[in-house]
Amino acid sequence: MLADVTAFLQDHAHAERKVANSALALAAQHHARPKLVSAMIELAMEELTHFGQVHDLLVARGETIGHNQPDPYMGKLFKLMRRVDVNEYLLDRLVLFGIVEARGCERFRMVGDALPPGDAREFYVELTRCEARHHALFLRFAREIFGGQAVTERLDQLLDAEAEVVRSLEIRSALH
Question: Which of 3, 43, 132, 133 could form a disulfide with 23 if both were Cys (CB 3.0 to 4.6 A apart)?
Fold first, then answer.
């Protein structure tokens, strides 16, 4: 994962920005759910802070955020979302975003464990906690809106499909 630290950090920076954008899109599209809107605004601000922090890590290394590269993992996951029915689409987005945040938690823990003691290591340890909180946030909203059984069923389906996606991907120095 850390074979190319610069590529990983660049990918990570763009992932933080994309999550902020996705949270803002959820807020705008579901304006009739004020609790969801407030939570997504807060999440977007936190993710933009992380974007800035990763940018700072890159600048300290003499690098830039570079060009945004497509994320094959996310591209394949987005194809799993049902888009005909608004409610199914929202359920799928919340559950998939929860899965992605859980994967981020796992990866940030590995990065934190691999880094030498210092500011970058502490940053990734803190990100591990943030991602765990975000994972729970998305699944909590899914359960509040759609009920536990619907979320559990869709989560199981999407986790099975995600396992196939992961098996199909090449290993690269990236968050996903």
Answer: 43
